[in-house]
Write a structure and sequence with these properties.
With 221 residues, chain A is α/β, with parallel strands linked by helices. Chain A is built from four helices and 15 strands. In chain A, 15% of the residues lie in helices and 30% in strands. In chain A, β12 and β13 form a beta hairpin. The chains are: A alpha/beta (221), B alpha/beta (220). At the A-B interface, α2 and α3 of A face α5 and α6 of B.
Chain lengths: 221, 220
Amino acid sequence: MIESKERRREIIVKRVAQEFRDGDVVNLGIGLPTLVANYLPEGIDITLQSENGFVGMGPAPEPGGEDPDLTNAGAQPVTALDGAAFFDSCMSFSIIRGGHVDATVLGALQVDKKGNLANWMIPGKMVPGMGGAMDLVVGAKKVILAMEHTAKGQPKILNECTLPLTAKEQVNLIVTDMGVIEVTDRGLVLKEIAPDTAVDEVVEATEAPLIIAEDLKVMEV
Amino acid sequence: MVDKIKSVKEAIDLVKPGMSVMIGGFLGVGTPEKLIDELVEKGIDNLTIIGNDTAFPDKGIGKLIVGKRAKKVIVSHIGTNPETGRQMNEGELEVDLVPQGTLAERIRCAGAGLGGFLTPTGLGTVVEQGKQKITVDGQEYLLELPLKADVALIKGHKVDRKGNIYYRKTARNFNPIMAMAADTVIVEAEEIVEVGGIEANDVMTPGLFVDIIVSGRDEK
């Protein structure tokens, strides 16, 4: 287990950034997933889709260069790169639901061994709403979770989600500060492990059973 | 030519307590703020508000929530406006949460004369409660129904006197689809131009959908 929270988050976003192929259309959730764009490997160029209505999203503008009509899905000012395209919400979700987004990266409150995801509400406590998450998780070709392995020491990767689901059996890959886990028909497979982390530690921090890959690698982060 | 241009006050006179009102925008981006301010000021209440979200307490639809003008909201997200959550928990406001893509498509259906659509979004979640499931070619879908409103309040960048609308960047979002789905459509224009002031090729919402145009500029 890596002590520094900052380093743990860096491990997650750096590793997620290695998942894309050149030319992929990708939707990054607000928060930790947004940072993935800063760590793309050299030679990998992706197009960012923003569900509020455009592709070709660029970084935040220089101070003073904000345009009130140009934000990401979290209402933060962004820029549009050359070749960007704006559209309405129906087109945006046709792109998302129709399988035209290669990958989406989201956070999670809970995920389970079947790839069920819960990330939109905690009954009685926090009900922000699902926004575009339910459509993204159902429609994107690849669903990648970028999340800390545990929350306050408690596992988030469970046998069965207890919180209301965002979608059923849609998650493909779970990238945490402790490892990379693939959701397969056989169950959850630990394919990579974080530097300075022991397999036992990962197993202990995970409620769902883990299949340890025969060729378990160390994350290159 | 029918004169569609009215004052903000005249336009909002058409909105009555208890009506359903669609409001364009995404977290306040592309929301007709002047129309909303007049709704709040005039004290029209018991509204059912349909929009992407309830924005922020001091912005967009958020101002109607803080001003207690809504009895119900149909939205995809309320997380950026703590007052929405508070009113919901106190039982003062009914909140119907709808996945964003489903919300957009339900509105489009209403405007496009369709009886509903089939979507995989929400399967296996609370969203499927009370909905019909239909299997097509072995794939299960939820039947989602059209969503229309008495009035739509939308925001355009350039609007010509016929009501043709050009939107700018991410301020487009729900505005074009809401323009199709309400009995009365009121557009707040950042700039009103003469007919011909928008190239036919650049028109994003044809003027036939628009009933009333108001200026979003400050009165001089």
